[in-house]
Amino acid sequence: MSAKVLIVDDAAFMRMMIKEILSKNGYDVVGEAENGLEAVSKYKELTPDLVTLDITMPEMDGISALKEIKAINPAAKVIMCSAMGQQSMVIDAIQAGAKDFIVKPFQADRVLEAVSKTVSS
């Protein structure tokens, strides 16, 4: 059975890129969200195996959403997505419980490496 993934990014283009990479490689993208508030409610609704979460978003940022998702399910598996130059935020995210992070622009092999490593952990 393939892992169910929730993709969260405020840019539709970025969501589409990740979705395409994952779908082509057998992952089941069960939902998408464009901000942290939506991410938390979709997480509750869809109970995905994995969440890819952008750090910088309107409404609620990725680190706040990560903390809320971890409060709902301490075992949640979350990979943060960040732009270059967000190292301090990436460190905050890892300390808040993110399993890994991928940097934009996405490299398909790096996305797949992070996802397969996180899903099997």
From TrEMBL:
Q: Does the record's keyword annotation contain Cell wall biogenesis/degradation? A: no
PROSITE patterns to which the protein is assigned, alphabetical: RESPONSE_REGULATORY
- Keyword line: Phosphoprotein
Name the CDD domains for this protein. Answer: REC_CheY
What superkingdom does the record give? Answer: Bacteria
| Any Pfam family | Response_reg
Give the matching InterPro entries: CheY-like_superfamily (IPR011006), Sig_transdc_resp-reg_receiver (IPR001789), ST_Response_Regulator (IPR052048)
UniProt-recorded name of the protein = Chemotaxis protein CheY
Q: Identify the species of origin.
A: Exiguobacterium indicum
